[in-house]
Design brief:
It is built from 10 helices and no strands. By secondary structure, the protein is mostly helical. Helix 3 crosses helix 8 and helix 5 packs antiparallel against helix 10. It is globular. The mean pLDDT is about 80.
Amino acid sequence: MMETAFILATLGLAQALAVISPGPSFLVVARTTIAESRLAGSITALGLGLGSVIWASGALFGLTSLFKIAPWTYQAVAIAGGVYLIYLAVQLWRHAPEPMPEMSQIAARRGTALLRGMLTQLSNPKPAIFFGSIFVTMLPPHPSVTLVACVLPMVFVIEVCWYVLVACLLSSPRLRTSYARAKPWIDRGTGGFLGILGFKLIAER
């Protein structure tokens, strides 16, 4: 039991350090929270958590082995991810001049926020490689059922907790008012960064 707790703590620390590193997920949660609401940002965080669980499940059950055996599958996933990030970038640029949505519109977008978060996380196959690396390094060759059953919920909780915290920190009315004034520039800047990441994913293949 102590060994299982130690392994989970080590895995959790490694993931937490990776999660707090800024990237597309942070940008999407930040932009959603400030432009829409804390709730929308938190729902996006749930989507990111689901995406992480999918990648972690793949790493746990052999997806990284598939990437090694058939490198083209990794390239295909990376290209698809790059295309999605470019799509997000284009949408941000197109809608940058539009005013911020009303609260009634935000309520109707909850499903969209969840899907946006999940697709953002799935757009980059690097988490699969990350999880595959730490699982190979830190998990025993034949992990117990208890350990496997704890790993995936832990991955979900760490991802969601961090980004819900981000949503809470960035949801102040003052920040939202400031964002409304600078919305066109901020949205285009965010879109530009996501677009660069998307093209980078594709170009590296």
